[in-house]
Amino acid sequence: MSTETLQELTRRPYAAGFVTQVESDTFPPGLDEDVIRQISAKKGEPEFLLDWRLKAFRHWKTMKEPTWQAVTYAPIDYQAIRYYSAPKQKPVKASLDEVDPEILRTYEKLGIPLHEQKLLQNVAVDAVFDSVSVATTFKDKLAKAGVIFCSFSEAVREHPELVKKYLGTVVPYSDNYFAALNSAVFSDGSFVYIPKGVRCPMELSTYFRINAAETGQFERTLIVAEEGSYVSYLEGCTAPQRDTNQLHAAVVELVALDNATIKYSTVQNWYPGDAEGRGGIFNFVTKRGIAHRAAKISWTQVETGSAITWKYPSVILKGDDSVGEFYSVALTNNMQQADTGTKMVHIGKNSRSTIVSKGISAGRGQNTYRGLVKVLKSAENARNYTQCDSLLLGDKCGAHTVPYIEVKNASAQVEHEASTSKIGEDQLFYCRQRGISQEDAVSMIVNGFCRQVFKELPMEFAVEAQKLLGVSLEGSVG
Amino acid sequence: MALLTVRNLHARVAGKDILKGIDLEVAPGEVHAIMGPNGSGKSTLASVLAGRDGYEVTQGEVLFDGKPLLELSPEARAAAGVFLAFQYPVEIPGVGNIHFLRTALNAQRRSKGLEELDAMDFLQLAKEKSKLVQLDAAFMNRSVNEGFSGGEKKRNEIFQMAVLEPRLAILDETDSGLDIDALRTVAGGVNALRSPERGMVLITHYQRLLDYIVPDKVHVIAAGRIVRSGGRELALELEEKGYGWLGLDGGKKTTAEARR
Hints:
The structure holds 2 protein chains of 2 kinds. In chain A, 23% of the residues lie in helices and 34% in strands. By secondary structure, chain A is an alpha/beta fold. In chain A, strands 4-3-7-9-12-14-17-20-22-24 form a 10-stranded mixed beta sheet. Chain A has a 6-stranded parallel barrel with strand order 13-15-18-21-19-16. In chain B, the strands form 3 sheets. Chain B has a 6-stranded mixed beta sheet with strand order 6-9-10-3-11-12, sandwiched between helices. Chain B contains 10 helices and 12 strands. At the A-B interface, helix 9 and helix 10 of A face helix 2, strand 7 and helix 3 of B.
């Protein structure tokens, strides 16, 4: 049994792999300054943004793709990618009735109905389809609280001063290769603004869907939480099943001003490629937040999809008494590769950070935790606690842990714990002896392993994440 | 009809023959003790009956309720009513004890075509059964066996047995590592679960357990065979004279033989 059966069990079907037939407005493949001007023109952007994009592009051309990560893939031909694809329809939707019914059906099939009466009571959704946002729900209710939740394009039109003030302040366009590319060509994404002292009355969520072939998806999310405010935000992602790889290079910037809290959760289920490693999304993402005085930024991620995952949601703990958290579950199966972790940069006094990373490797999957805890000289009494656990299913997969710790202040306390375990024959037999089937036992053990992270997710999504992990491992889809 | 019939059972582990012709018959309501020196094959017998991986049956057969047992998966054997109280109960981090047990009970109920118990009904049942081995509520919400003391783990095994109500319970060295109070508690739980329909097989190295759980029959196993069977007095005799008395050389040779 054991290894073979486990491999059998971890053959994962991908439920979100269908394609929606919609007429699209798609650019031909290729990237130069003209393409960037066209994207900007399509969106009717102000001058400052076009300038910023062009600066980013010129900088990008001087950069080299990073090679330090523990993943291997065929070279990406950036001229073969289409940088813009949008379903053909009116650019601004007065109501959901004007959204292409095919697209509404797509989201329904994915379990995200966009009609408000069918929605989860307390979750507002922004749906991004290929390069553009197609619908945002509960806008009126949010507006009453003073909360702005809209697509990035709309924010550029309606709130240019806010975009100009914060764009690129956490992740500058020169930050890294993929962030620079994103800054040059980003097409849409979500924008959130929570005014001073406001507790956002509902969960906010963005659902990203790549549909068109050969396109890249480059969305950008910016969340600004003013002093003393609170917001919980969740993103989900899926893509059709295709034989070729598709590039997804997103940027997320979070700004938590004094005493604000931002909780950011991700359930990433991009198409992972097939068992032989054909197809799948290349997921190169830069996520970072800046926490001012006594502010808190908490990242929770459940990464089950993508052929390659390259992301390090980070927190710059700038203010005194600021708090950063990173809770992660990363699952790699078949030929998937993940190099993921976080950076916690302590600048403020008494800043605290917690890192809990759970890596699960199955099939021939390779899973690397890569993390940096950096305590600057100014960060008197900084605290960090890091826990990295790896679980191996089968004997052809790999788990790697690469922690970096740099401490410049002697009063800091930094703890690191790590463990690697194989899903035990003993655990499986124990479950089965009590009457639990092998499939359910694997699912139960893996979910138990991830519990510390799942409990950080908003309730509805914790259930979804558990199911997703179950489906990913069970090999039989209901 | 016998509940469990073992005929000429031969089994090997990692290429080594461990069981070399076991015959055993357990009727409903009977408690059998299987004793023997270390490495004699006691725990191997338990593992083979429960269907643990890596144990190859080379000869013989096992009937449970008159039907062949060995062709069933471990979970199917559990659903048929075979329960093994583990010598070393396994920890499953992050999985709540109660959640685990409810999943198990409902899986068994499903395979019998019975309706599943909902959370409330199950909790009621669990509360009631936990009294048997004096487990408190806090204990039930902890992860399966994680951070449990040796005694708590063994009590938890008996608690699970009480909830699952098997027809045949195999207790593999349930007494090992218990102090006298814990042993009394565990034995009390086991005695409460004795019934005319249920058979039990107690595997133990020491006769001490049999002071608390009085068996109907005692078998001595050595080098993979049952070398002596008798009533309770056999256990007492063994206690007094040691395994050497039966012409077994203290288990030394057999230990070496059986240790992987």
